[in-house]
Amino acid sequence: MRDPSYHDAVTCAICEDTGWKTITVDGVSRVARCECWQQQFSQSLLKNARIPRRYAHCELSNFEIHTDTQRAAHQKAVRLVEQFPVVEKGLLFYGDAGVGKTHLAVALMREAIIRKSARAVFYEVRELLKLVRDTYRDSTETSELEILKPVLEAELLVLDDLGLEKKSEWVDETIGLVINTRYSERRLTVITTNLQDVESTEPGSFIFQLGLRTRSRLKEMCEWMRIDSVDARDVGRYPTPEDIEHWQKTSPASPKNRRGSSLPPKASSQAKAQLRKRENDGRADLKWPGGRAGSR
Ligand SMILES: [Zn+2]
C-alpha cells in the first residue's frame, strides 16, 4: 500500500524538487535554479565553513555597537559582503578580548555564504596548527596538505585569534605559508587578533609574534580596523553608567589598572589626562575606548 504521506514528500511547490524552475526571459522559456536549490546549496556551504557552535548566532544584524570603532568595523564588514567577490582587501580586526572581533568576522562570512554563495572557511589559528601537527603522527592517514588545501584555497578565509600560538620556527613557517600563499594568490582573508600594533618588538606586538615580513604582508592584504569598547563580558550586554564606572575601578583590563603600559610616556599621560577629564565630568561615557586612549 502506498504511504499516505506520499504526496507530502514533494517539498518544493515551485520545482517539485527537481531544483530547476521555468522562467521567461524576453518571451523565451528557459530554466534556472530554483530558490530551494540555492538554499540547500548555501546550507551545505555553511556546513563546510566550520563555524564553531558558540558563534552560530553571530550575524551582522545582531552585532552590538557601543563605540565608534565598533561602528566603523561593522560598516566595513557590511561593505565587504556587498562587494564580494570583487573585494580589493580583506579585513584585520584587532583589539582587546570581548569587543566583538570574532562576531563580526563570523557574521560577514556567514552573510557572504548565504547571499553570495562564498566558499568560505573559519579556523581558529591554534586549532589549525594542532590539526596540521596531528598529521605528522604515524597513526593518521590525513596529510598536511589535506588540512591546508582548503585553508590556502578558500575564497574567503577567517583566521581567528592570530598571535596566541606559542612561537617556534615551525609555527612561523606554517603561518607564513598560509599568509604568503593567500597574499600571492590575492585571496580574501579576514583576521582577528589581540596583538598590538606598536612600532616595537615587545611581546604581544605584531612584530614580536609574526615578524616584520608577515606583518607587512598583512598590511597590504587587509584593511586594519582597531575595535575597542569596554568589555561586554565584564559589564554585561547592556551596561549602565554605574556598571562602566565599576568596571573602570576594578577590572585588571581597565587602563586605570593596567600594569606596564605599552604607551610611550607622553601618550600615557595624555590618556590619563583624558580619563581625569571624564571623571571630572562626573559621568561614565559609553564611547570611552577600552584601552590605549590617546594613541590614535
Ligand atoms: Zn524548488
Quick structural gist:
The protein is an alpha/beta fold. 44% of the residues lie in helices and 14% in strands.
Number of helices: 10
How does the overall form come out from the CA principal axes?
Answer: globular
Q: Please state the structural category.
A: alpha/beta
**How many β strands by DSSP?**
7
Q: Return the string of H and E elements.
A: EEHHEHEHHEHEHEHHH
Strand order of the largest sheet: 4-5-6-3-7
Rounded mean pLDDT is: 83
Q: Output the radius of gyration.
A: 23 Å
Contiguous runs where pLDDT drops below 50 for at least 5 residues? 1-5, 258-268, 275-296
Helix content: 40-55%
What small molecules does this complex bind? zinc ion
Biggest sheet layout: 5 strands, parallel
First and last CA, distance = 75 Å
Architecture overview:
With 296 residues, the chain is an alpha/beta fold. It contains ten helices and seven strands. It has helices at residues 35-48, 68-83, 101-116, 125-134, 144-153, 169-184, 206-221, 232-235, 241-250, 265-281; strands at 20-25, 28-33, 90-94, 120-124, 156-162, 188-193, 222-226. The chain has a five-stranded parallel beta sheet, with helices on both faces. A two-stranded antiparallel sheet has the order 1-2. β5 (156-162), α6 (169-184) and β6 form a beta-alpha-beta unit. α1 (35-48) packs antiparallel against α3 (101-116), α2 (68-83) runs parallel beside α3 and α5 (144-153) crosses α6. The chain starts with 19 loop residues before the first strand and ends in a 15-residue tail after the last helix. Mean pLDDT is 83; it is low at 1-5, 258-268 and 275-296. Bound molecules: zinc ion. Zinc ion binds next to loops. Zinc ion is lined by residues 12, 14-15, 34, 36.
